[in-house]
Amino acid sequence: MEQIALRAVSLKTAVEAGAAILRVHARDAATSRPTGDLDIWFHLLRSLKQRTPAVLTMTTGGSTFMSIEDRLNAPDAAKPELCSCNRGSMNFGTHDDPEIPGQLVA
Question: What does pTM read for this prediction?
């Protein structure tokens, strides 16, 4: 929870510096992994809306362990003003890319 409090201070600083839009990622507190859990998302969104007038944009990047449906569940329920729609892994490094010579795959 202390990390969340520190991030809230950073968000406040960003808004005071002129940020109008804040990109929000939800993570499970126990594992630190991305989550689509509605309880976590709604708690996060309500808490941030009480602290800032900025527009909150939800991310759907998730992880390679989340389906597209899992990624879209929270934005579909929350109906945010803005939302990214990352349909697949973009930088998780879970596949060979012939365009990147010498790429190492985990």
Answer: 0.70
